[in-house]
Amino acid sequence: MVELRRHFRGETVLITGSDGMLGRAFVEAFAELSEELRVIALPRRRLDVTDRSAVLRHEADAPTVILHCAGMALADACEIDPNEAFRVHVDGTANVCSLAHATSARLFFPQSVFIFDGSIVPVDESTMPNPQMVYGRAKLQAEQCVLDEAPQGLSVRMAGFFGGDEKDKNFVGHFTRSLAALLDAGISECEVGGRRWQPTYTLDHARNVLLLLARSCSGIYHMGSPGEASFHDVATACVEALGLTDQVRVLLRIDGESYHEAALRPDRMVTATTRLDREGLNRQRHWRNALGEYLERPHFDQFRPPSRRFK
Ligand SMILES: NC(=O)c1ccc[n+]([C@@H]2O[C@H](COP(=O)([O-])OP(=O)(O)OC[C@H]3O[C@@H](n4cnc5c(N)ncnc54)[C@H](OP(=O)(O)O)[C@@H]3O)[C@@H](O)[C@H]2O)c1
Fold first, then answer.
1. Distance from residue 73's CA to the centre of ligand 1 (Å)
2. Low-confidence residues of the chain: pLDDT under 50
3. Which atom of ligand 1 is nearest to the CA of 164?
């Protein structure tokens, strides 16, 4: 923390997509760090990254660090509307790279493991990307732009977030909301699939990325909580952490994983944090510890039995 405070003192940090799962985590990570830096948090309504002149107008803010968290993060939405996916990811990222270039800002880019085809697990920095979906193809092209165009571009690849409270669009967000609906309807069992991933807390991710920036890291890193998990494991952990084990039983669905998705995902997607480990920069907690802390946030009070609510 002391190192991060010292490093970011006096910096101007610009965050695109600041009201998304990851953008919010960076805003929170900076809030706990220091008041002696300037954070320009830009949700989509204040900056659409596909609007080149709007992006370049921020040259006047002279950002020294840009965290490019804007993106069309839902793979199925990208599959359904590839033109929009490429516009947001590729054109939007090219605009942000131009801003970084114009202001000599360091640029962070969050990359998805869906640039890989799932044939090799775990993937690390030396694994060759081979995207099988529109989202992965667009993100790979965007990453290339960051690495080619941005001064000290940093791309951090990871395999699935939880975080963002009501903005959580991933499994933990969906599951906790569906759990509440289930309990309201008096249903005491639910079925969850066994797809394996690497649940990573956005706040842990953001704090670890700040360390990489403080150490002037650039290029490609893989990052993720140690310990892979199935959706079923994570659902069971959510039920336990929320104090609902007496009320809900989570069953493993073994029906061939009917996820009804437009974008085809591999059944298992996990990263190896080879470069982080080698450079002594891995600050990720086990997903169970991080998930436990996340579910203690006030947002989740609505899903807890009254006796388990935090003040
Ligand atoms: N979620 C994951 O597990 C994961 C894993 C690896 C990498 N990533 C990457 O991390 C980045 C952030 O994802 P996230 O998980 O935080 O998703 P998120 O919660 O959907 O955040 C993305 C934010 O970008 C905004 N946005 C969309 N189009 C925009 C545009 N044209 N201009 C400006 N803002 C725009 C979204 O606004 P609206 O909500 O209003 O559309 C949203 O606030 C994305 O690039 C994603 O590809 C995510």
1. 5
2. none
3. 19
